[in-house]
């Protein structure tokens, strides 16, 4: 009887109403463990960005001394990787639609490998900048593809948990970079920074080899018409076989494949492009209200000194891990709003402390302690929400046809903002004081909180194919949520009546 009911809902010519799905706890099943392993391995590509960010913070001390470069050149060297990664993120969407998510991860590792080699053997500033450019391309690829692959493999019950992994590994990579700085700081200056940067080839090699054991994204397989391969992956990554069937039916509908196509068929996808052609036009020139809502929601971060940065890295990593276990339990909005609110208070305290110190003619220990505590608390609050939720949100809210390129836009904006902050911070605090700079950041955080509260709906427990229903009403998304819940109740009631009538 279950199969008959399923067939009717899948094959019927009538529009299929997708009921609201309440959040369910992540089941510790064998299939979920397989999806967990795939998501974990894919997300490890984010180590590349974290390592580069962390290691460069210490390496610049030795680079400046060895190559005799100016503060401006250092500022450009550190900040431009975020600009370079825009190129990688922009290319990654099309590449992943063309060769698949899995091989794009391998490609990202190969590019970063080449960049690390070039930086390690750099003989002058120009050579080092070229290596930085190559590594930045790899970083952009890695940042875009990890959350996309993870979101497409993970079952809905655990998707928030799994898609927050990239932020965990970014911070893990930052911590590794700090440790590398400290470990190689005893070497001669000419060797120290080269070992710090060049050792980055090791994680990229292990990542490329490990990814070969992963399956391809089931949604990409469906986009290529490979239904049998997609079914096998979904069977292994879903909580139940019934959920696997429903996920496959949803993906077929999104890809424009008739529901009566058999799972072992290889079909031609004609309704929407299978390689990403034309999606930029739909994203920017003629977006639907739902896509426009999604787009604006994605616009959304010597020895003693090196040891201090390790402490910050530990703080970030710990709270990122806390966030990964909460995201599917308390929801995206709660974490995001709490995180942003905590950052507002932390940045306000930091700005106040720095202003007092800046205007004092003697050392104020309490103000210094305040600055240290608010720095750590801002890192903690960022890591528990705004850091991981950015990747969770951007990877799950775009429709199937736009997901790869849409996520690449989110990565590009993220990197552009990071680059803008890194490349303007020194000039900004010299112009308006360091306290004034953090008061400005506090104001931006307040605007962000208002934006999150008014425009970002909760996506916890929804399938990827349901997201387009939720977006498109902008400030009225709460009404849409109530309507979907009402439809859920009515749908469940009808199903119970039908089951009762079918009893002998």
Please give the largest β-sheet: none
Task: Tell me, briefly, the overall form.
Answer: globular
Q: How many distinct beta strands?
A: 0
Q: Looking at the chains present, what oligomeric state does this protein adopt? A: single chain
Short summary:
This is Polyol transporter 5 isoform X2. This protein has about 500 residues and is mainly α.
Structural description of this entry:
With 504 residues, the chain is mainly α. Helices cover 77% and strands 0% of the residues. It is built from 22 helices and no strands. Helix 16 packs across helix 18 and helix 18 runs antiparallel to helix 19. The longest helix is centred in the C-terminal third of the chain and has 32 residues.
Features:
504 residues, mainly alpha, 22 helices, disordered N terminus, Polyol transporter 5 isoform X2
Any chance you could write out the topology, listing elements then pairs?
Elements: H1 2-11, H2 30-43, H3 47-67, H4 71-99, H5 101-120, H6 125-153, H7 159-163, H8 165-184, H9 189-198, H10 201-211, H11 218-223, H12 227-237, H13 241-255, H14 279-285, H15 289-297, H16 303-330, H17 332-358, H18 365-396, H19 403-432, H20 434-455, H21 467-470, H22 477-502
């Amino acid at each position: 009887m279950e199969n008959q009911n399923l067939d009717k809902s899948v094959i019927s010519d009538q529009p299929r109403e997708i009921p609201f799905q309440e959040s369910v706890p992540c089941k510790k099943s064998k299939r979920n463990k397989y999806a967990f392993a795939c998501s974990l391995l894919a997300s490890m590509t984010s180590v590349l960005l974290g390592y580069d960010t962390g290691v460069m913070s210490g390496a610049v001390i030795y680079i400046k001394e060895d190559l005799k470069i100016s503060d401006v050149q250092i500022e450009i060297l550190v900040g431009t990787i975020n600009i370079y990664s825009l190129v990688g993120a922009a290319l990654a969407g099309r590449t992943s639609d063309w060769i698949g998510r899995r091989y794009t991860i391998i490609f990202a590792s190969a590019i970063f490998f080449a960049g690390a080699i070039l930086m390690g053997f750099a003989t002058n500033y120009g050579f080092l900048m070229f290596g930085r450019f190559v590594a930045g391309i790899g970083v952009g690829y890695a940042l875009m593809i990890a959350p996309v692959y993870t979101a497409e493999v993970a079952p809905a019950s655990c998707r928030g948990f799994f898609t927050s992994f990239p932020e965990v590994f970014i911070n893990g990579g930052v911590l590794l970079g700090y440790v590398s700085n400290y470990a190689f700081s005893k070497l001669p200056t000419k060797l120290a920074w080269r070992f710090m940067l060049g050792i980055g080839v090791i994680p990229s090699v292990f990542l490329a080899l490990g990814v070969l054991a992963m399956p391809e994204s089931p949604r990409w397989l469906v986009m290529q018409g490979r239904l049998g391969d997609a079914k096998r992956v979904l069977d292994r990554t879903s909580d139940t076989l019934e959920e696997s069937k429903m996920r496959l039916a949803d993906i077929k509908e999104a890809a424009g494949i008739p529901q009566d196509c058999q799972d072992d068929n290889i079909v031609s996808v004609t309704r929407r492009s299978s390689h990403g052609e034309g999606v930029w036009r739909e994203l920017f020139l003629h977006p639907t209200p739902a896509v426009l809502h999604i787009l604006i929601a994605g616009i959304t971060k010597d020895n003693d000194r090196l040891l201090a940065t390790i402490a910050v890295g530990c703080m970030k990593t710990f709270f990122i891990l806390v966030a990964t276990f909460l995201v599917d339990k308390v929801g995206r909005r709660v974490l995001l709003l709490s995180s942003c609110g905590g950052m507002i208070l932390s940045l306000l305290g930091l700005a106040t402390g720095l202003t007092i110190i800046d205007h004092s003619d003697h050392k104020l220990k309490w103000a210094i302690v305040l600055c240290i505590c608010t720095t750590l608390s801002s890192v903690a609050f960022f890591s528990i929400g705004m850091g991981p939720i950015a990747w969770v949100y951007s990877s799950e809210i775009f429709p199937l046809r736009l997901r790869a390129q849409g996520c690449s836009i989110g990565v590009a904006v993220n990197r552009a903002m990071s680059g803008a902050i890194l490349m303007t911070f020194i000039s900004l605090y010299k112009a308006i004081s360091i306290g004034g700079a953090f008061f400005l950041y506090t104001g931006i955080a307040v605007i962000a909180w208002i934006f999150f509260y008014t425009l970002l709906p909760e996506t916890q427990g929804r399938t990827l194919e349901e997201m387009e229903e939720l977006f498109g009403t902008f400030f009225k998304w709460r009404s849409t949520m109530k309507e979907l819940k009402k439809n859920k109740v009515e749908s469940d009631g009808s199903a119970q009546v039908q089951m009762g009538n079918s009893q002998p």
